[in-house]
Design a protein that fits this description.
mainly alpha; globular; disordered N terminus; binds protoporphyrin IX containing FE; Hmp protein
């Protein structure tokens, strides 16, 4: 693929035409990965008032240092705590062995007490964990509109989920969550998915300028609407109608999934194949993660006050499910390519 540096992404104004007022929101979103595996061994038994042990730092571990701080920063538990406003316990929980959501979901009152959490914070954490575990929207996507070919639904393997998976319980979301999440999608559709898509893609370019090289004019031409007289400026990616359309489709895919509130199993094969195709588009794995950050920034800008924690949570869940599934396909295809080259 032609790799050429394209200019212009930063020249364009990076705001929505009718941006609503902003609301501060935690940086990054909770990264709700699927298929979290049991990590019972991380809990080293220590008698406590309830007879259950609070997880302790594993023996032989170095004292908190730069890399531990880094691990804490990047852990899913920290992202979750940031979202619920309990960041002050991130370090303590992490170094006590609560390094992933599956473990955190098992936390007991005695653990929280032992770790010195204030009573009100214990209540809050418990409540948020219950919401996390059970009150997650089950989602539906409309692949035929956005993701290309779809396999026969009978062929679709079930998604493997664990208790802490976003889709684990299949329970209905609360009315409040449903409404706020659906309102967020309605609002973005009002702005226009292509406008949101353009902003989303500019954010990706800002966060990782080298990604612009993935979209030379030859690639953009594939997404051009030849029925209109729209122009593709070779050097100005930010104003590219083709990219606006392509990323508009991505926004549409994610948004309709977020608002659909139905079974998501059926989208797995198409997403896996989509991920496989992205190997041919010269993507690096890290771009998927960057795109998640870009999506959060996009939503924050586009939704303003509608960008509540619940909304962020729902979008992050769905997006993470999508990119985790795509990544599985991406890795399989990349391994095949590497095996052929060896
Ligand atoms: C949720 C995440 C994403 C979804 C759902 C998605 C979806 C799509 C779809 C539907 C296409 C049209 C071509 C096809 O169906 O194979 C496409 C093309 C493309 N995507 Fe993605 N994408 C995602 C993330 C990304 C990211 C993060 C990048 C890189 C920054 C990227 C780069 C590309 C490129 C370069 C093409 C054009 C390929 C070509 O026609 O040569 N995608 N994507």
């Amino acid at each position: 693929m032609q790799a050429r540096r394209q200019g212009g992404a930063r020249d364009e104004r990076s705001t929505f035409p009718a941006a609503t007022c902003r609301r501060s929101s935690p940086a990054g979103g909770y990264s709700g990965r699927t298929a979290v595996r049991a990590r019972a061994s991380a809990l080293s038994p220590k008698p406590s008032s309830s007879g259950r042990a609070a997880p302790k730092p594993r023996p032989g571990r170095p004292p908190p240092n730069q890399s531990l701080r880094c691990n804490v920063e990047q852990s899913e538990v920290t992202k979750f705590l940031r979202q619920i406003g309990l960041m002050q316990y991130a370090q303590t929980l992490y170094s006590s062995g609560f390094e992933d959501m599956e473990t955190l979901l098992e936390i007991e009152d005695s653990h929280m007490r032992d770790l010195g959490m204030l009573p009100g914070h214990q209540v809050k954490l418990r409540k948020r964990l219950e919401e996390f575990d059970a009150d997650i929207p089950v989602v539906q996507i409309h692949p035929q509109r956005c993701l290309g070919d779809w396999e026969d639904e009978d062929d679709a393997p079930p998604v493997r989920v664990s208790a802490s998976s976003p889709y684990g319980r299949g329970s209905a979301p609360s009315d409040r969550t449903t409404t706020s999440v659906q309102m967020s999608w309605a609002h973005l559709k009002e702005i226009g998915t292509d406008v949101v898509g353009a902003y989303f893609c500019r954010k990706i370019f800002e966060l990782k300028p080298e990604t612009m090289e993935l979209f030379p004019i030859a690639v953009r031409s594939r997404y051009r609407d030849w029925a209109t007289d729209e122009d593709e400026d070779e050097r100005n990616l930010a104003a590219s109608p083709a990219l606006r359309r392509l990323f508009g489709r991505v926004v549409d895919a994610v948004g309709s999934a977020v608002a659909g509130l139905q079974d998501m199993n059926k989208m797995v094969p198409a997403l896996t194949q989509l991920g496989m195709r992205h190997v041919g588009y010269n993507l690096k794995e890290e771009y998927f993660e960057i795109s998640e950050k870009a999506l959060v920034l996009t939503l924050r800008e586009g939704l303003g006050d509608l960008f509540t924690k619940e909304v962020e949570f729902a979008w992050s869940m769905v997006y993470n499910f999508i990119i985790a599934t795509m990544l599985a396909g991406f890795r399989t295809a990349r391994a095949e390519v590497q095996a052929k080259q060896a």
